[in-house]
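Sanity check

After download, print the first record. It should look like this:
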Amino acid sequence: MRPILFEVFGVAIPSYFTLLTGGFLLCLLLAYRDAPRLGLDPEDVLDLGLWVLLAGLFGARLLHVVADGFFMDYVHLCTDPLQVDVPSFIHVPCAVDGDCVAAQAGALCDPAAGRCHPARDCFAWLKFWQGGLAFFGGLLAALAVGLRFMARRGMARARVLDLGGFAVPLALGVGRVGCFLAGCCFGQPTAGPFGVVFDGAVRALGPNATCPPGWDRVATVAGDAICAVGRPAVLEQAEQGLLHAGAHGSLPVHPTQLYEAALALALFVGVYALRRRLVGRAFWVFAAGYGAGRFAIELLRADDRGLWLGGALSTSQLIAVPVVAYALYRLARPAADVPPVKGP
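Expected structure tokens:
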């Protein structure tokens, strides 16, 4: 995999955030070009795009923080970092904070346990470029802000939503390719033909129950501890006891990131090709198709993404159900009364 796409003057540029941003700019370009045909001012579309981008990033990050199981870690990073256990820091012995800094294992030493912890950071929950975005949170926030912006500018809501019907899945599809390169959002082990192996390694604990620099000390479900390094799939499988000392790479897993990318790009192609026939309906076709497809793909996911109702549904599945229901409701109604489309 390639979590870092490239470096500029020594600054690492992450694959996920780069492709996510690139996909958004590409979809904004298509929306800008198609706006006159729909009787929309292209400049209004660009302004709307900026507000939607900011709202989408904030909403996606907020849902991740609240619903994906990391809320208290973000709270403790601000209030008491010694309560936050980073797997690659916690096994590093220390006597003073400088020992942790020298070992590149955080910045704080727990004086009682003699172990390293991360530095205090009250803004970690806002750092979306470091990973941790939940799409449905971004979609709902972008819709709320977008609808408000359209009302203020007097933009035809149905027309703008028609643009979103093909623009949103394009950005999402490109972004999910970046997710695959980063190794997040991975699937369950599979023996099928589409299985992919993520890079990493597992080894036994070293002297004094330590791991090599940069490796995670992982507590397994059997109550043991082991050292692991690599993509999230390797760390998760080591924790579940599926990988043992000496393993190189994960077990083959479903590339659920690519499944979702294929779903989103197929919706983009379909909606874009039929956009003149889907007047007032394009966005709801996307919402229904994506919500149903995402619900199914979630059944193959294996990463930690927040579970509800006793583990029956993930966060995305819980949100997908009302999204699909409302989209089908809108599709069952007569198309909105909107200005006629210009051009052929």
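If your output differs, re-run the checksum step. Summary of this record's structure: The radius of gyration is 23 Å.
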